[in-house]
C-alpha cells in the first residue's frame, strides 16, 4: 500500500515539475528583461535538480542524487555570476 502511494506521488511530482520547467523555459525565451531571464534560469535549474531527485527516488539509483548535487552547485555559481555581470558589467574584477 505505501509503495503504491510513493510511486503515484513521485509520478505526480514529476509531471508537475515538467510543467514548471516548460513555464520556466517560456519565461527564459520570452522574458522582457535580463533579470527575468536570470530568474527563469534559476527556476529551471532548481526544477531540474528536483526532477533528478524524483528520478532517484523512483529508481533507487544513487547516481541521480549525485547529479542533483552537481546541478545545484553549478546552478548557484552560474546565478551568482550572472547577477554580478548584470550589476557591474564584468564577472572577474
UniProtKB/TrEMBL annotation:
One of its GO terms (molecular function) is sodium:proton antiporter activity. Keywords: Antiport, Cell membrane, Ion transport, Membrane, Transmembrane, Transmembrane helix, Transport. The keyword Membrane applies. The chain crosses the membrane at residues 6-26, 38-57, 63-87. It is found in: Cell membrane. The keyword Nucleotide-binding does not apply. InterPro entries: MrpF/PhaF-like. GO terms for cellular component: plasma membrane. Belongs to the CPA3 antiporters (TC 2.A.63) subunit F family. This is K+/H+ antiporter subunit F. It comes from Arsenicitalea aurantiaca.
Amino acid at each position: 500500500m505505501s509503495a503504491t502511494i510513493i510511486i503515484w506521488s513521485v509520478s505526480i511530482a514529476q509531471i508537475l515539475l515538467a510543467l514548471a520547467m516548460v513555464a520556466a523555459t517560456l519565461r527564459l525565451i520570452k522574458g522582457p528583461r535580463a533579470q527575468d531571464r536570470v530568474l527563469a534560469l534559476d527556476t529551471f535549474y532548481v526544477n531540474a535538480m528536483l526532477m533528478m531527485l524524483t528520478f532517484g527516488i523512483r529508481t533507487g539509483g544513487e547516481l541521480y542524487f549525485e547529479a542533483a548535487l552537481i546541478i545545484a552547485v553549478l546552478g548557484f555559481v552560474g546565478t551568482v555570476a550572472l547577477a554580478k555581470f548584470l550589476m557591474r558589467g564584468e564577472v572577474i574584477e
